[in-house]
Structures are given as structure tokens and as C-alpha cells.
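Let's sit down with a protein and look at its sequence and fold side by side. Once you have written the record down, we can walk along the chain together.
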Amino acid sequence: MTEKEASPELDLVDSAGESSREERPQARPLLGMSYVVMGVVLLVSIWMALPARWLPVDVLGTLWAFGAGVAGALLLLRHRLGIRVAIAVSGLWALMGACVTTALVWSAASIVGLYGPVGSGGALILSFVAMLVVPYMLGVPVLQIYACLRTDATRA
């Protein structure tokens, strides 16, 4: 069997009724599962772990979780929009991570400026939290975007 025969293809019929051959995206099971797991963890975190309900967090977090689940499902089903949706979800995740990290660092600097030596303890705690946030809110989405772009480039 030749390489062309071994590659999975999808028959599409265009508006003129002619059949055209289009390659399906390559399978990305690990990447797809990472998005599905992220969506499940977000939903569990928001609806079971948070002690209080606040509408902006609940709605935006749930939308983010569903977006991650849809991206993972599209990647697992080898849909042609899977990579685009996954990159969009990871890009929003990285943007949110950059905002959270900036807010934590800015707050730490503000506490030191306002309270001097007494505020140094609070600033140290906020700086430690910022260091814990960076790998999950910036590192993971950047690696996922890299994986999406790398697998997309290998097809070209």
C-alpha cells in the first residue's frame, strides 16, 4: 500500500456535485485529551470546589471549560477546525494568565509602596502565589499552542 493510500481521507461533494478529496487532520489524542481534562478540571473546580457563587466567575469559567471541552473533542474527532479552536482556547488562557500574573505582581508592589516594611510580608506571599500561577496559567497554554502549531506544520 502506498503512502497516499494509507493516509486517511474524506470524500467531500462540492456545490457542483463533484467529489473532491480532502485529507483529514492527523490524530492528536494526547493534545485532545489534555483539553478535555482541562475542561473537566475547570468545571469541577468552579462548581464543586469554590465555596461561593459569583456570576462573572461562574459564567466565564463555565464557558472557558466548555470551550476547552469542544477543542478537545474536535481534536479527538480529527475535525478540521480542531486546531483553530484549540489555539483560540489556549490563547485566551494565556492572556488570562498574563493578566492574573500582572495583577498579582502589581498588587505586591503596591503593598510594599503603601505599607513599607510591614507590607513586605504580604508582598512576599503575593509574589509566591504569582510564581505558582505562572507555570499553569502561562506555561501550559504556550506549550499547547506550540504543540498545535507544530503538528499543523508537520502536515504542510
User: Anything to note?
Assistant: Residues 3-155 form one domain. The chain has one domain: 3-155.
